[in-house]
Design brief:
alpha/beta, 12 helices
């Protein structure tokens, strides 16, 4: 039987400039033209679906066009969030103050949606209604139909309760555990809606790796691993009997250019991650800090029913990977796994984590995805002899 390496990506795609600006202004509390914003989101969603389809990406999404970021958007869909808090800095950036100063002058522009100062939880967190997530899913269904695709060919992302708990300060609940439980109950509403609309559900969980050098930077590794286990148990409970094959789990160490020399090794969290019932596990394997960790997956073995979506595109550099370099990475990982049927090609993370916050220029991001599709085809030809 011939080997087929399918392609996907990790979520966010470049937003048009006007859309970035409107989302950033709304996030900052300014009044914006809602009709114009809705029109831009609609146009951008159609555009990114068409582009992904034209490139031959197998499992696509809406690029998160209508969201101010991959997790802070929940403040508009849930009760309990107001004001702003100060996110703990990444420990690897604090180590290098000259580099941090450079980032503050460039990437951390006040014109972008800031994930450093997100809203805080100041009251009881509850999901309001499903109007927004249903509208988002219907818009994606419409865009997919235009290019002859079905919802099962696409995914919709929802954040992990852990990233919200770590980034959006708790000023209401008695402890972290109570906050996590409330967030999980609220997010479960979106989990169910996405699945009911026929999509694959992607859980964005940078908390399961990045928070080791952020929220848990000054605490023992064992305490962080216990947090990963707790979040995993909550996710499993919230997902209930949802088909494992329709669940994607995206874990990363932070989608920013930086030293990353404080990142927790994958081997330290592998057992905890393996407990989470996901049909696909998306991991960073293109960037210089984690490119070797396919060996951990090969040595420890993928959990039953789980495929590896290997990041073979770095989303923090404007280098466009050569298709042969992508094919090399995929071939190496496939041979290490021993079962290429459990491998997909993906990106390390999204291309625009929050509106306006992107290292990779839009036109280059799309060229990287084109290279991903070509590289996967070349890997297929090699593996098929």
């Amino acid at each position: 039987m011939s080997i087929r390496i399918r392609t996907t990506h990790a979520g966010s795609l470049p937003r048009p400039i006007e859309l970035q600006q409107l989302l950033a202004r709304r996030y900052a509390g300014e009044s914006v033209d809602g009709g114009r914003l809705d029109a831009l989101v609609h146009e951008a969603t159609l555009d990114v679906v068409r582009r992904q389809h034209a490139l031959g990406i197998d499992v696509i999404n809406n690029g998160e066009m209508g969201r101010d970021s991959f997790f802070t958007y929940v403040a508009t869909r849930m009760t309990g969030f107001s004001d702003h808090c100060q996110r703990k800095p990444m420990r690897d950036l604090v180590k290098y103050p000259h580099f941090l100063a450079y980032l503050q002058r460039t990437a951390f522009s006040s014109e972008n949606v800031s994930l450093i100062q997100p809203p805080a939880a100041t009251g009881a967190v509850r999901y309001r209604d499903t109007d927004a997530i249903d509208a988002e899913c219907r818009a994606l269904t419409h865009a997919l139909a235009e290019v002859g695709r079905k919802p099962s060919d696409a995914f919709v992302s929802v954040p992990s309760p852990g990233i919200i708990a770590a980034a959006m300060e708790n000023r209401f609940y008695p402890d972290l555990d109570a906050y996590l439980a409330a967030l999980t109950d609220a997010l479960a509403v979106e989990f169910r809606s996405v699945l009911e609309h026929g999509f694959q559900l992607q859980i964005d969980a940078p908390d399961l790796a990045m928070e080791r050098h952020t929220y848990f930077a000054d605490r023992p590794t064992a305490e962080f691993v216990a947090f990963v286990e707790r979040v995993g148990d909550l996710l499993n409970s919230a997902l209930g009997d949802a088909p494992q094959s329709r669940i994607r789990l995206h874990v990363c160490w932070g989608n920013y250019e930086g030293p990353h020399d404080e990142d927790v090794p994958l081997e330290d969290i592998w057992d905890a991650l393996s407990r989470i019932r996901a049909g696909s596990l998306l991991l960073s394997m293109a960037n210089p800090r984690h490119a070797h960790e396919y060996r951990v997956v090969a040595e420890q073995g993928l959990p039953p029913g789980t495929a590896l979506v290997a990041g073979v595109i770095d989303t923090t550099t404007n280098y466009v990977e050569h298709p042969d370099a992508i094919a090399d990475r995929l071939e190496q990982i496939a041979l290490a796994l021993g079962d290429p049927s459990r491998l997909m090609a993906g990106t390390d993370c999204g291309f625009e984590t929050s509106a306006g916050f992107s290292t990779v220029i839009d036109e280059i991001a799309w060229q990287k995805l084109a290279a991903l599709a070509e590289g996967a085809q070349r890997a297929e030809r090699r593996l098929n002899g």
